[in-house]
Design a protein that fits this description.
This protein has two domains: 13-193, Vaccinia Virus protein VP39 (Rossmann fold); 203-259, Helicase, Ruva Protein, domain 3. The chain is 33% helix and 19% strand. The chain has helices spanning 17-24, 47-50, 65-74, 92-95, 116-125, 139-146, 156-164, 203-215, 221-224, 232-235, 249-259, and strands spanning 13-14, 35-39, 57-62, 82-84, 105-110, 130-138, 165-173, 178-179, 186-193. The strands form two sheets. Strands 4-3-2-5-6-9-7 form a seven-stranded mixed β-sheet, with helices on both faces. Mean pLDDT is 93; it is low at 2-9.
Length: 260
Amino acid sequence: MYVKPKKSLGQHFLTDDTIAQSIAELLSGHGEYKHVLEIGPGTGVLTRFLLPNPNFETHAVELDRESVAYLKKAYPALTPRLIEGDFLEMKPADYLPNLPETEPFAIIGNFPYNISSQIFFNVLDYRDRITEVVCMLQREVAQRLASPPGKKQYGILSVFLQAWYDVKYEFTVPPEVFDPPPKVHSGVISVRRNNSTELGCNERRFIQVVKHGFNQRRKTLRNALKPLDITEAAASSRFMDLRAEQLSVADFVELTNMMT
């Protein structure tokens, strides 16, 4: 339902064990899940801190064949739960084949910069099972996902993600602790499922309203939403003279109900 953009690959491997440990320790657990999936473990810098954790079982999906071969040798305990493949092309039954279809799990990883947004669109598709995500990604993307309304970083994925998850920007990571060093800083965020079980509006219409609102984000919603045939109730609402970035998730839900 949350349509994914086209994908491309690109990854920088973290080399600092202290930072890796700090990221791994952000997993809250709280007994909500017993399984953690690491996306793109690469050389295993996060894996080495995940495997000893007695609170959950670590699984991994890795696209690069050489990395898979390395991980099997370096971390034999992971081997039975290491899947070679593309996370974006897979379903939970592919990378967690022995778990019941309703079993909750968490995700962690140093996400490739070029596909981090697509990973979160995938997370949204399985939000009823994915209770937590801890990840590192490009700082600007991390800031965007955690941004509150009213900030220039706030956008489509901010709204979609915050509708179902509480997003917190944890800390910034400098380029020099990666191999190869990226040209930008990275940011670590924690994303934890909130208590929402439904939006309180038609979800497909909600997606349309949010996308149209931000596709012309410099315009007021009165102009940006014209292609959706604004109803009389919406036209006379307090939202029409605002821009999309000024609306919270709750505001978009209210506006969607007016547009239905």
